[in-house]
Structure of Methylated-DNA--protein-cysteine methyltransferase:
Amino acid sequence: MIAVGSLETPVGRLHVAVTDVGLVGVSWGEPRVDLPVVDDPARVEPVLTQLAEYFKGERTRFDVAIDWRLTSSVQREVLRTLYSTVDYGSAVTYGQLATRSGDRVPARGIGSIMGSNPVPIVVPCHRVVAGDGLGGYSGGSGRDGLAVKQWLLILEGALPPTLGWDPERLEL
């Protein structure tokens, strides 16, 4: 059984899905779940609270449990490495994350894993960049993925603010 909730943020409405084990999904679109949905505000509230704190600049690390069951062992290994070694305000390249993850996955494969990250923001795939720029980002509500990535990196101080940057909403 899965509990769902949503939160309005500066980068759009985020939806979360939480199992009895932990957070299993963060998305900009309605969560697609194959499990029965239950109304359990107590299960989703800690995740929504921590996301709200993050967007206010009050939280630099998430401490909610994550349910990794929907990821492969390789995805899990790379995403856990990202989660535990790339702190708020910093970034790594796809190649650097490949090395940190034990070189089992090439940099291009790291990009694919980042694109399939089921819990973006909490597991900060936006902190993984190309050697020559931002790279890609599958988050956001459409074609604004790179703008969302840039906004998140500016919020965290990993990039300098651009002219017109507004911490209250995405308008880059």
Q: What stands out?
A: The chain has two domains: 2-55, 73-156. The chain has a mean pLDDT of 91. The beta strands are 2-9, 12-18, 23-27, 37-38, 92-93, 128-129. The first strand starts at residue 2 and ends at 9.
